[in-house]
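Human: My hope is that you can spare some time for a protein that puzzles me. I am handing you a single protein, as its sequence and its fold in token form. Could you go through the record with me and say what the backbone is doing? Take your time, and here it is.
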Amino acid sequence: QSRYDGAVATIKARAVVFVGPLVLKQNNKAAIIARFPVFVDQPGFKGPESKFPGWWGFASMLTEISDLVEATPLSSMLYNGYSYVLYAKTGGKDVFIAASEDAEGKPAQINLDPETPWLTFAQGRQPVSIEFKLSEMEVHWVMLLWPNQGWSTHSG
């Protein structure tokens, strides 16, 4: 989906829509963007695009993935005995977002490559899978979580 198509879909939805994860052209860092269309309810108002009466523009928020991860307990998971991989399901693809330091095969940043060694590695650890899905905002993220020393077995 092009940026224009995404903007039009957001205007038509009249709701917050999340875009990404994506790589920013300005600094080559991974980010997500939230867009909210703003409408003016005033007779005679002519917005920038005549196809969308009352539409004024967007209120947007951009967050770099590294800032998002650092603001959560994810940054200390490894030290607490757990490893993880976080990825998005976007357009039928699994897109890398972040992982603990010990996750093998992880790229340096988000990755749109169809090869997913990081996912194969994580799935081989028998992880617990946690999904965060908001269909109305086009968000579907998955976290795979496992003990970094492996699952313990108890006999008895």
Residues 3-13 form the longest helix (11 residues). The mean pLDDT is 84. The first strand starts at residue 17 and ends at 23.
